[in-house]
Amino acid sequence: MNGFTYHEPTTWPAAQDLIAREPDATMLAGGTAFTLLLRQGLIRPTTVVSLRRISGANRILADSHGGLWIGAMATHSTVVRSPEVRRNWPEFADAAATVATLRIRNQATIGGSVAHADPASDVPVMLAALDAQVIVRKPNAAPRVPIDQLFIDTFTTSLAPGEFIESIQIAGRGPNTRAVYLKYTPRSVDDYATVSVAARAEVEEGRLRAPRIFLGAVGGRPMRAMSVEAALGDGTEARAFADAAALVRSDIDPIDDVRGSAEYKREMARVFVERALRTLVA
Length: 282
Ligand SMILES: Cc1cc2nc3c(=O)[nH]c(=O)nc-3n(C[C@H](O)[C@H](O)[C@H](O)COP(=O)(O)OP(=O)(O)OC[C@H]3O[C@@H](n4cnc5c(N)ncnc54)[C@H](O)[C@@H]3O)c2cc1C
Description:
Layout: E1 5-7, H1 12-21, E2 26-28, H2 32-39, E3 47-50, E4 60-62, E5 68-71, H3 76-81, H4 83-88, H5 90-97, H6 102-107, H7 110-116, H8 123-129, E6 133-137, E7 144-146, H9 147-150, E8 151-153, E9 156-157, E10 164-170, E11 177-184, E12 195-204, E13 207-216, E14 223-224, H10 226-232, H11 241-246, H12 262-281
Parallel strand pairs: 1-3, 2-3
Antiparallel strand pairs: 4-5, 5-10, 6-7, 6-10, 8-9, 11-12, 12-13, 13-14
The structure holds flavin-adenine dinucleotide.
């Protein structure tokens, strides 16, 4: 293992200054992925900037429109327990609760999960279905990036050197908005997903409008089920769900691995998309 210079700024501007001076610095959040990458020699940082002492970086706030502001350093456990999340988007808390074990959830942060961009991760898929915006810190700017545009491929985001995630925002829901996250883990409950589905829609009198559906673990990034969304159109009844869900096969690009063959994952994607749609209108 190589040595590195270690910094622990206590404010976002101080972190920003450090990173502006050293754009190749590696961020450290909860360290659950960072430590593995370091041990396996997959990263060899010369400078590490830990975000764990930044004041307020783990805070979760609710806005007056029912939205949420989630500091990048909020852990999965903080999300699960947050009264603000439970009140405004309980489905997001449910998704965070499916991650690994309590020990990992106590340490792993939401910002770290998004930045790590593992396509099998849970929270990024749910955030994509909720149309979350990522507040990115870069020199002299703090743009909001739609989360779907942040994910490029496996372990790859659109963040450039010198840019990092400060927070994530989720807009408030309408009175008829429903959402669900389903994670299929046939090997053990604390495993990564074999397939996961996050879905959100407006539901009135048993009909779905404006569905937004993303899947995890079946491609290099959270995969949007565009064909399913298009087939559902506006105002679809439950009897059309099975035919629409079958179209997901062409929206995803799974690989054979220890969690199943690509064909098995395609079939489970179909099953879980239909199940998610039925859950939305139940
Ligand atoms: C045993 C085990 C089981 C797991 N099971 C699951 C699971 O079931 N589901 C699931 O979703 N995940 C699972 N994970 C993954 C875990 O959720 C991620 O490792 C974690 O979310 C990363 O967050 P962290 O705070 O630990 O980030 P770190 O490990 O500190 O950082 C991860 C990466 O993101 C970068 N980074 C961190 N924060 C920022 C930031 N604010 N801005 C820019 N870059 C940043 C770091 O430089 C690093 O490259 C598991 C991990 C382990 C070790």
